[in-house]
Amino acid sequence: MSGPDFAARGLARQALMAQPALFSAMSGRAIPGNLHRIESTGYSADGEGAGTYVNDGLCNSTLLGAHPRFAFRASDSRVFRLLPLGGIVTVEQAGARGVAGQNDQPAIQAAVDYAQNVGAAEVRFGKAHYELWAPLRTSPFKSTFATDGHYITISKSLILRGAAAARTVLDCRALGGTDPATTWQTVALDSNDPSPRVWRGNACFLRGNKNSELPAPGNPLQIERVELHRLVFRGNTARTVSHDWPANITTGDGWDGTHQGLKVQDTHVGDIVLSDTDFIGWRGELLYLAGYDPRSLTMERVRLLTTNGNAMNPGVNVPIIATNCEFGDAYQAHEDTGKRYARYIGCIWRDAEKMNIGSGPTNGILYNYLYPTRDETSQPPLTQFDGCEIRNVTMAHIGNWVRGRLRTTDTVLNLTSNLFMTLQDIDLDIEALLDQRDAISPLLLYGPDTLTKPVSGAPAGVYIQPPRNVHLRLRHMRTALAQAGNRNWAPFRWSGYIDKTCRINVEGSEATTVPSTMDNPTKSAPFIQLGNYSHSLGYLHHGAVNVEPFNQNGEIRVAGPVIQAHSTVEGIYDATLPTAPTGGTAYGFAEGQKLRIYKSGDLADLRFVKGQSAAFSVQRTRVLDKHGDWIEFAFNSGAGKWEENGFYTAASEVISASFAARQLPAVNPGAATTLTLAVPGAKVGDKASASFALALPGLLGFAETAAADSVKVSLFNPAAQASAAFTSDVFVEVSRR
Prior knowledge:
The structure is a single chain. The chain has 5 helices and 53 strands. By secondary structure, the chain is mainly beta. Strand 51 and strand 52 form a beta hairpin. The longest helix has 15 residues.
């Protein structure tokens, strides 16, 4: 063999060693010494995870030992590593295949670890579906910072992105690929307590800086930014009726805090960005932020659905912008403790027993984690709703500093200072729809039942405060289906001490009655204005609220803006009104508050006598005579009294009667004679007049309704001599106005 042949063969062999090959065939390969870059055709199969490998300054034995799926040693002992092209590492380059029955969790975690180590920006998922089997957990339950046992752990800034035509599903199963609803691990509670706890593993665990690991001011955090795009984290458990915590060690049922979606607890991170990403079918919180405040949370087209715990739980003071997101099919759709800023645009909360949003500390925790605090030198820490919906949530609690537009279906909105210690600065437009449920209120407003109710965790003398500066505009209605099923709204109700700065405008249709208080006696009276309003119970006058029987002279209880007074004993009773509820003037009535009083039944009369009481003023004495008669007042806070604003009676305005040939006796000087005439329908207090067919012989005549159904005519002789007896026809008129 000639020298040229040897040279040619050597060049051919060198060229062959430089040809692309599978990554699995790279280890020990004889790669020419002058070659520092080589291509692979795939990880273990052609076309699956192809990449470029380089020998550079990062390549050493330490990197090879830490990332064997991404590095290899050639025959000359040089180490080559995967080069992230465009800053991207794919999970296929770690050996993930995205086929049924294969556990891709080790490959996916390896891709995350490698990307974080070499400073790659993104880990990409090229397939539509991957199975992730739960990794083994050996650390105790309470080891918050332990990274074992989670499906994916992120400890540095990184992007995870699904790149398939459809969003990538990360199908998270239990050990060995089994069903997580029926299979779970058990671990010790902590190093000092071996009692077992359920462990299933969290979908995506962010392990940022501990307090002791915080960098010097101006230096970046470990996790400056994490982004998740076009991913579906499937937890493979259904929601059950049990929300007991922790999960039951025998059945696995309940609220499992080890089976969360995105978990960030007691760790410092920067910005969190989620888009087109779902966490569905987990037994714990689907998004859980606790401990320290991330820099921001941005969510777009994110679904957090199906859990025995909370769907959305950003329980720290993190600014939030969420657009077109959905939270629910959960025990709690949302649990919140207040934000210095939160904006929800086109978001939906649905199918949950409860939720609470807004309120909480934004300027440090004082007394307890719900007590509202704010920086009073800065802007208020607003939570803003822009066209959001709450559907089929049994009780949705709204806290402090919340405003915007909100639609509800089959949901009770509950604003209560008993939960949040006070309520303030709330401004909401609410459109409520009743469809599947019955006899629920679209809105409740609660103040403390006493002014000395202590705040949990506070020193003695710190009390829960009445709601103040709460402005609500409520419009409610029923669907055709609800109407066909005879399902009705209960009214807006309030209870306890509520500051009179609270204003509620109510309109719409199909409530059983108008707004009313649950307290008797009435503690407070927020300003209530009724707009275009109807009710669904025909036997009540205009949906008026029934108050106690009015069977004697006295004060009518103002239980709402439209009340219905009735009597069980015949009579004529003089009424007056309170100028403040029992809580005092600070808790009602507000300037311009209207009050309409209807009479129910025809048994007795309700009379407001002109000039009789300083609590009200009427143009003239008003009598509610017939069933359905009403009088309306408006409150003048400057004068401290109710002023007549309208009046209606179905009783005749004038009753006329005539009496033929009545004989009248002679009347001595300075004396009088009385003629009592039966006039059916005449009421005490009606205005009466009498006239005679003949001229009175020097007598003065007076008429009055001194008793029911009668008029007394008195004739007085002012002259110095007796009048003559005479006979005349008598004409009587009785009028109500």
